[in-house]
Amino acid sequence: MIAAAIVAPRLVACGDDDGPGALDAGMGADGGVDASVPEFPMRVVPARPDLISRIAEIGPLAAEPDANGLRLPAGFVGRVLARSGEPVAGTDYTWHTFPDGGATFLTEDGGWVYVSNSEVPVNGGVGAIRFAPDGAIRGAYRTLQRTKVNCAGGPTPWHTWLSCEEAERGRVWETDPWGEVPAVVRPALGTFKHEAVAVDDVRKQLYLTEDETDGRFYRFVPARVREDGRPDLTAGRLEVAVVADEGGGAGAVMWREVPDPTFSAGTPTRLQVSESTVFRGGEGIWYFAGTVYFSTKGDNRVWAYDVVRERVSVLYDAATAPDPILRGVDNITLSATGDVLVAEDGDDMQIITILPNGSLRALVQVVGQEGSEITGPAFDPSGTRLYFSSQRGGDGGLTYEITGPFHAPR
What we know:
Blueprint: E1 51-53, E2 70-71, E3 77-83, E4 99-106, E5 112-118, E6 125-131, E7 137-144, E8 150-155, E9 161-165, E10 172-175, E11 184-185, E12 194-200, E13 205-210, E14 217-222, E15 236-243, E16 253-257, E17 282-288, E18 291-296, E19 301-306, E20 311-317, E21 329-334, E22 340-344, E23 350-354, E24 360-366, E25 374-379, E26 385-390, E27 398-403, E28 407-409
Antiparallel strand pairs: 1-28, 2-24, 3-27, 4-5, 5-6, 6-7, 8-9, 9-10, 10-11, 12-13, 13-14, 14-15, 15-16, 17-18, 18-19, 19-20, 21-22, 22-23, 23-24, 25-26, 26-27
């Protein structure tokens, strides 16, 4: 899409929580901003390469972990990208504690940014690492701070990161991966224990998960679509899913409007529509080619919602799977051609791929970090680097990069 304005990236070679990358200017007491803050610019970035997945060809994990505690398939190498409490290499930005959900964004110069939430109760927020086109680290900085329990979230097609607060009255913050525009809270996306969000850019709708044992599955329908094609996140209708569970209509989804999405009265958002369907511990979510994939940790399931047919089905269920190597389902991302990558919270700390034929393939295992969870899986634009974190590995979190033939040019 042709930009109405092109904003050159400001390279932040260093910065800590109080430095230039912290984006304090214009923030209120809760980290928000007032209406005078400029909106997120339209950015002109290179097109993502046309790739095909080679994940189905990947062999088994090595019998022993490497020096970083990673069991990897043959042909893959890993490195520790950042350690919580220590400066990111080549910068003086201290990597945040409890790194969680993440995503990558192409930059104007052919490089990319990896953003990562901080699931800290008081001063959470989002950190970012900027990469040159050759993969070298060019800078690191904060894009959001003074928010709470920033768990997962989701990238938008207009190159922003939606960071979700996993708290009873949690909200969604729209943030700038470049670290140039202050974050903006988006109350219209609801007030509840947010986990993650995915954007259907064809229909201009957003889907959201809720990390409660009796959580719900939500859809946001904007009141208008802007002239530049972006859904307006300032106003719209928050809806909750009601799923038919009997007869020929089983799996059919009806959407009911949530009357008080900002939880301004006494009834929690998830309880306002009595017939809404419970999804047990909503976790990661991702939109791909007309399907919304999401996981529920309470029952170890991965779901697939067909946005055209408005029908939801179970893609994976650990209770009935013949080889249930995937448990503790959590964050989700997809390959360029539709393989579903699921990170495990606990269990044996693996990232497992659900291939299109339904079979499972382990891509990595983190060894010796019991009590942690894998978070933030995301591919770089070339599809040959996979980023993720062990949220409580080391002393407060470790973020990794794995390089290998996950994808190839089409």
